Amino acid sequence: MSPPPAQLLDSDEFRRQGHQVIDFIAEYYSRIAEYPVHPDLVPGFLSRRLPQNAPSRPEPDPLSAALNDVRDLILPGITHWQSPRHFAHFPASSSTVGALGEALAAGINVVPFTWAASPAATELEVVVVDWLGKALQLPKSLLFEGGGGGTLLGTSCEAILCVLVAARDRKLAEIGEGRIGDLVVYCSDQTHFAFRKAARIAGIRKDNCRVIPAQREDTFALPPAGLEDAVQADVEAGLVPVFLCTSVGTTPTTAVDPIRELCAVASPRGVWVHVDAAYAGSALICPEFRHLVEGMEAVDSLSMNPHKWLLANNDCCALWLKQPSALVAALGTDDDVILKDAAARDDGVPVPVVDYKDWQISLTRRFRALKLWLVLRCYGTDGLRDAVRAHVRIAAAFEDMVCADARFEVVAPRLFALVCFRLRPPSIATSPLEANNLNERLLAAVNATREGPYMSCAVVGGVYVLRCAVGSTLTEECHVREAWKVVQDHATLILAP
């Protein structure tokens, strides 16, 4: 017999099952290094081991049975992003407080889409995004206390789409809605593909997305001269420049675009400048990295993901805007009387009301602020700096190992905790294609090692490179030394006559 609805949130049962789940997760972390980081499986493997239909009635102890299946079926079939040997992609950082913050938010389970729907949830988010913005030393103009403001979304992809729609509508209000086909947006060929996807969703014509070649000699950053030429050509053709997506920490190499110089080109022409700092924005919590983003005062918006490198667990993307009113104008929903709230008052004095449903695509939203607030309180900004710096030191140690082996080369400058490297071509007669194939084979061999590391790749300027991204909370220098030994051993085998 299934329990009646009143018992589905029974306190005693919640406590018993909660202990089961916490113990299971703790055991998982204690044994995570035993799992291959990336499974060797074929599609459909799980559906063949699970029933075709959901049960009509629960088992005698359904949670215990389900956790057994998680242990036996699910864990062996996932990529273990929290493994100390996970060096692919960028980190999805985890912490005990971040995980428990997720549990706390799920347990309270409010829907703070308007201020009135959950006043403290909304106001905590207002406080937290300013806390984080100050910790990153963002310009005051992007913070609530400086006339701007911020919010917490799921991902940077969502943030980019939101601000692109705001920029689009602001420009169309000036030139007329009928000219949407004339709007042009700009990025570099190193910009994450999420921007081009967002442009399509926002109604920007595919051939009006200008992808400007990055500087190839060393930085892989977006060149201001290239942007200037592209914008000028579009203006002369009667088109309307509307949006520039810059990057602080590109996905392939963590390149940093020259923000000040790009704003000098774009801002005078009324182009909205957004900074996508999904990964590397976390590093701005350390003073030694802030020189990389000089000129941030001129940008219109910035997004970064605390879930990548600030221990906040998935998902948590922070977005700040200089003019939140432009976002509200584009995404606001004031037509439904059910969603309208009475004006908030403090001692009889009207105060601004933030309804975060007007800052995002969907109406329903999660109480992400609680998790981030707990992370900031329990680790402090000093603790978060220590975590970032530890990963940077480990990545620097790996870079030194690569440089000490004459068979290898570092392909792009290491700015944060990502090392892009490759096996040098064995002779000057080796073609670029052969060199790329050589490194593709090397990565495949490294990732096929059951007890070895898991890395990813990128093709930068036509060159295939291996990416070692340090960022797992559990990673220590011993893990990158072990990883490097695996890379060296496979390189020796591949280069053997």
TrEMBL record:
> Which Gene Ontology biological process is one annotated for this entry?
carboxylic acid metabolic process
UniProtKB keywords: Decarboxylase, Lyase, Pyridoxal phosphate
As cofactor, the record names: pyridoxal 5'-phosphate
What Pfam families does the record tag this protein with? Pyridoxal_deC
Name one molecular function that GO assigns to this entry: carboxy-lyase activity
Q: This protein's superkingdom?
A: Eukaryota
One GO term describing the cellular component: cytoplasm
The cross-references to InterPro entries, in alphabetical order and at most eight, read: Aromatic_deC, PyrdxlP-dep_de-COase, PyrdxlP-dep_Trfase, PyrdxlP-dep_Trfase_major, PyrdxlP-dep_Trfase_small
Q: Which residues carry this modification: N6-(pyridoxal phosphate)lysine?
A: 308
Q: Record's PANTHER family?
A: GROUP II PYRIDOXAL-5-PHOSPHATE DECARBOXYLASE, TYROSINE DECARBOXYLASE
| Family, similarity comment | Belongs to the group II decarboxylase family.
Question: What is the protein's given name?
Answer: Tyrosine decarboxylase
The organism that produces this protein has a lineage beginning with: Eukaryota, Viridiplantae, Streptophyta, Embryophyta, Tracheophyta
